[in-house]
Design goal:
Length: 212
């Protein structure tokens, strides 16, 4: 019979005993041999140094898996909680009771988070059905928001673009690229969506920037 202690990955060979399956006792044909030595017992092998090392390894592996499952925002919770929030409301953007309950941008530490920005001009009007005009207005609005937060397009690290019409994708790219003349574009996700909060919105753009 071979007994394996997996904690140490060591092996101990014990003498075999044949049992009578009907009586669960050693078979008589082996009694003349077995009576001269005690029946082997299944005793655990010493735990030892290697077993401790393997347990430490398992513990470290589990800790690593748990850490990987925790979002980065949760890890930074303590440091972020010490940073005051600054709510950015540039002049000329829609404000007051008619405005939806959101801030155009929020600044915390050296990060600026810009909300999904529609194409309203400073008078609160929208170029209905004109994608080029709406796209240019959205980019101008975000330019103003970034400036109010103390930064600009060159510090934008991620943008999310929502379009309601697939055919506007090329025109969006043309106008979008003009705001990055050095060709250093931020990471971007572009979505073709079924609808936006207003049926006249042809796009919205949000972004995140890092202050210098």
């Amino acid at each position: 019979m071979k007994i394996v202690d997996y904690r140490q990955n060591t092996y101990k060979l014990l003498p075999a005993v044949i049992f009578d399956t009907n009586s669960n006792r050693p078979a008589r044909r082996r009694n003349h041999v077995d009576k001269h030595r005690p029946t082997p017992t299944l005793e655990p092998l010493p735990y030892g140094k290697r077993g401790k090392q393997m347990d430490d390894g398992r513990r470290n592996m589990i800790a690593g898996l748990v850490a990987a499952a925790i979002p980065a925002t949760a890890i930074a919770k303590d440091s972020a909680s010490a940073q005051p929030l600054e709510f950015i409301h540039p002049g000329g953007l829609q404000k007051g009771s008619a405005a939806p309950p959101y801030s155009p941008a929020v600044k915390v530490g050296n990060l600026v988070f810009v909300s999904g920005t529609p194409a309203f001009n400073t008078d609160g009007k929208l170029a209905v059905g004109n994608f080029t005009a709406q796209m240019m207005q959205v980019m101008a609005n975000i330019t103003n928001i970034l400036a109010a937060a103390g930064t600009n397009w060159s510090r934008v690290v991620k943008t999310n673009v929502c379009l309601t019409r697939r055919e506007d994708f090329a025109e969006m790219n043309r106008i979008y690229a003009s705001h990055f003349p050095d060709g250093k574009y931020p990471a971007r996700t572009t979505l073709i969506v079924y609808s936006l909060p207003s049926p006249d919105f042809l796009l919205e753009i949000e972004c995140m920037a890092i202050l210098e």
